Amino acid sequence: MIKESYYQENLLGVDFSKQDLGGVSFNECKISQCNFSQASLVGASFNNCTIERSIFKGSNQSLLSVTECELLDNDCSDSRMKGANFSQTLLKDCNYSHNDLFSASFTKCELIDIDFTAGSLKLVSFCDSRLDTVNFSKANMKGGSLVKCQKVKICLIDASLEKAVISHTHFLDYDFSSVNLISANFIHCNLQGVSFNTNKMMKLSRFINVNLDDAEFIKVDSPYIFLQGAYLNNVKILNSNFLSANLSQTNADNLALKDVELSRANLSESVFNGSRFINCNFESILLHYASFHQCEIDQTELSQAALYKTKIIKSKVSGKEVNKILGSNKEMEQADAWSPAY
């Protein structure tokens, strides 16, 4: 007999398989070695419960609510969990592979040794949570979000972060080479030492106020990439497509660009120190107010660029030392003259 609610009960080895538990609430219960396979838990809630070594395989957990619980060593694979909400909950050694978690949310949770392999995680959100050894390989996280997550140790091999938002979350020395980053948004993140090498899925990706020091972009296809204001110290960009990229207001020491498509890109107001631009396409590139100090520009036609007050100081251009400000534009000079002084 299914109850409408369970309170402070010790449920050991109970068979709930294929049962309708829609809307049922479990409060302060200990649930161990129970079978919920193929059960309907639509709109059910677990509050301050411990659930361990239980099976939820093939169940419908849509709109499930889990608050202040401990979920330990459970099999929740091949289930539907659309709109499920997890809050202030510990999830450890659990299997959520091949799940439909559309629009699910994890807030202030700890996820340790969790498997989301090949799951549908569209619009899923992880906020202010710890992600320690979490497997997202082949998962579709399109439109999802990772916000203020700590200890991020995750696997994203062949995963999709298309149109996802990653904010105030750090991935040091991570390999994004196989991750779909089309229209992905990284905001206030530390991505020092990451690799995007050979990634062909970076069109329209955005990096806003991001640290990309020591990162590598080798054989990358990233037209329209947005890197405004990024830190690009010791970064390598080689044999890549940065067509119409926005690298304005960036700061870069020892940046290396070789065989890079940069036509119609915007590098205005950027500062480059000790950097190298070798065999790059500068056709219609914007270099307004850009500064090159002790840089090398070779096999690259500056004459094709749009220059205005572009500083090239103690730098070599096609083997010749240049120490001057290039570019004049009467209309822009008149606009500068009318700019208010602060």
Task: Write structural notes for this entry.
The chain is mostly beta strands and 342 residues long. The protein has a domain at 1-134 and 142-150: Pectate Lyase C-like. 3% of the residues lie in helices and 31% in strands. The strands form 3 sheets. It has an 11-stranded parallel sheet with strand order 1-3-5-7-9-11-13-15-17-18-19, with no helix packed on it. Strands 20, 21, 22, 23, 24, 25, 26, 27, 28 and 29 form a 10-stranded mixed sheet that branches. The chain is elongated.
Task: Name a few traits of the molecule.
about 350 residues; disordered C terminus; mainly beta; single chain; Pectate Lyase C-like
CATH class of the domain at 1-134 and 142-150: Mainly Beta
Assigned CATH architecture of the domain at 1-134 and 142-150: 3 Solenoid
Q: End-to-end span in angstroms?
A: 76 Å
**What is the rounded Rg?**
26 Å
- Helix amount: under 10%
InterPro entries: 5peptide_repeat, Pentapeptide-BTB/POZ_domain
